[in-house]
Amino acid sequence: QVQLVESGGGLAQPGGSLRLSCEASGFTFSRYAMSWYRQPPGKERELVADIRSVGGGSNYADSVKGRFTISRDNAKNTLYLQMSSLKPEDTAVYYCHARPVGGGTTYWGQGTQVTVSS
Question: In Å, what is the CA distance from 79 to each residue of 18, 42, 53, 87, 99?
Fold first, then answer.
């Protein structure tokens, strides 16, 4: 049974920071590229950042470059998103996503709410 469980969301003020975690189980985590997506209220889901299965290579949406950092700990089967200098437009449900490098079935977490407001 594949599970991706996000945590760390909540309320932050503009300029603040949050760290999201995604704990994975039920599959070989180290063989999957991992991503964070988000869905702001009233908008479509969008890619925030992704990271390769090994080697640490990553990519970011232009809107979060310089503010967010994606990382993973394959020994702990955990994906992270460090978010700094938060803006109200970062408000969204954030989802963890797993994709096998060679192609195939992908998986989604249930999401965690991030709200940035004063």
Answer: 14, 26, 11, 22, 13
User: What percentage of residues in the chain have a pLDDT greater than 70?
Assistant: 100
pLDDT tens digit sequence for 67-90 = 999 999 999 999 999 999 999 999
Over residues 57-62, the mean pLDDT reads 97
CA triple 84-87-91, angle to 5 deg: 100
Instruction: Say how far apart CA 47 and CA 49 lie, in whole Å.
Output: 6
Half-sphere exposure of 27 (CA within 13 A, CB side): 24
* Count of CB atoms situated within 10 Å of the CB of 35: 23
